[in-house]
Write a structure and sequence with these properties.
Rossmann fold; binds magnesium ion; 8 helices; 263 residues; 6-stranded mixed sheet; binds adenosine-5'-diphosphate; alpha/beta
Length: 263
C-alpha cells in the first residue's frame, strides 16, 4: 500500500512569553497509508491537534533545534513550501472537520459548502452541483437553505463533513469530530467517514478521545507528552511480515479507484 503522508522530525514549540514555552511536539515520526482510516488518540495536551495541524499543512513544523523536519505528501516534500503553495494544496487535496463545526453562521448550509469550492477555484454550476451532491451524501439534501442556527449539532457536523468532502480530497483530517455530539450522532458521523473511506478510498485521520471511534478505525496511533507512544498495527498487516503487501482486513476496498491507488 502506498504511503500518502509521511512525517519525520516534526517538532513544535509554542512561545507563551519571552521565558515561557510549551514543547507541544518533540520530534514525531509518522506514516499513513493511502486509504487508511486512522485514529490519533492520547490525553488532552499530548499534542494531537498540533500534529493534525502540521499534517494538514495549517502550521509548519519548527525548522530549528533538531534535525530538519520532513513532511511528504504522496512523496513530495511539503515541509518548507510557501504559505501560498500550502494553501493551494489544502484547498484541493485536503478536507477538514473540527469539533465545533466551524461553519459561517450567516451563510446557509449550501453556501458554507460552496465556500470550500470557491477556495479550490471551483465556481458556478460545477460548484453548485458538487455542493448539492455533497449535502446529499451526508443526508441533508433538504437542508441546504438552512443557516447553522437552524440545524441540530449533528446536522451542523454533517454540513461540515459535506464541506470537507465537496472537492473530493485525498485526505480528510478531523479533530474530535464527535466531541460535541451524543452517541447516536457520533455513530452517524463515524459511519459517514467509514463510508467515504470504503467507497472512495479516502484517507481519513481522526483525532479523538472516544475509544469507540478508535475501535472503528483501521489503526490507532497513541500520543503522549508530545511524542508517539504507539504507532499501532495496521489492520491486516501480518505481525511477522511487515514487508509483505498488506491486505486490509475486511476493508472492502472494492470501490477503490485503481488509478488513484497507483500513486
Ligand atoms: N496556540 C498555542 N499556544 C500556546 N500553547 C499551545 C497552543 N496550542 C497548543 N498549545 C499547547 O501545546 C500542548 C499540546 O496541545 P494540543 O496539540 O492542542 O494537544 P491535544 O490536542 O492533544 O489536546 C498543550 O500543552 C497546549 O496547551
Ligand atoms: Mg486537541
Amino acid at each position: 500500500m502506498a504511503t500518502i503522508l509521511e512525517g519525520r522530525n516534526l517538532r513544535k514549540t509554542y512561545r507563551l512569553s519571552r521565558k515561557n514555552t510549551v514543547e507541544a511536539l518533540k520530534g514525531v515520526e509518522i506514516s499513513i497509508d493511502k486509504g487508511e482510516m486512522v485514529a490519533i488518540m492520547g490525553p488532552s495536551g499530548s499534542g494531537k491537534s498540533t500534529l493534525m495541524h502540521i499534517l494538514g499543512l495549517l502550521h509548519a513544523p519548527d525548522p530549528n533545534h533538531g534535525p530538519a523536519p520532513e513532511l511528504r505528501l504522496a512523496g513530495e516534500n511539503v515541509a518548507a513550501l510557501s504559505d501560498n503553495a500550502r494553501t493551494k494544496i489544502r484547498a484541493r487535496r485536503m478536507g477538514f472537520v473540527f469539533q465545533d463545526f466551524n461553519l459561517v453562521p450567516t451563510l446557509t448550509a449550501l453556501e458554507n459548502v460552496l465556500l470550500a469550492c470557491d477556495y479550490a477555484g471551483i465556481r458556478g454550476k460545477a460548484a453548485k452541483d458538487a455542493a448539492v451532491e455533497a449535502l446529499g451524501l451526508v443526508g441533508l439534501a433538504d437542508r441546504g437553505g438552512h443557516k447553522p442556527s437552524e440545524l441540530s449539532g449533528g446536522e451542523q457536523q454533517r454540513v461540515a463533513i459535506a464541506r470537507a468532502l465537496v472537492n473530493k480530497p485525498e485526505i480528510i483530517l478531523a479533530d474530535e469530530p464527535t466531541g460535541n455530539l451524543d452517541s447516536d450522532r457520533s455513530a452517524e458521523v463515524l459511519a459517514l467517514f467509514r463510508q467515504f473511506n470504503r467507497e472512495h478510498g479516502q484517507t481519513i485521520i481522526l483525532v479523538t478521545h472516544d475509544s469507540e471511534v478508535g475501535e472503528a478505525c483501521d489503526r490507532v496511533i497513541k500520543m503522549r507528552d508530545g511524542r508517539i507512544r504507539d504507532a499501532g498495527q495496521r489492520a491486516g498487516t501480518p505481525v511477522m511480515a511487515t514487508q509483505a503487501v498488506a491486505v486490509p482486513l475486511g476493508a472492502g476496498h472494492s470501490g477503490f479507484d485503481p488509478d488513484a491507488a497507483s500513486v
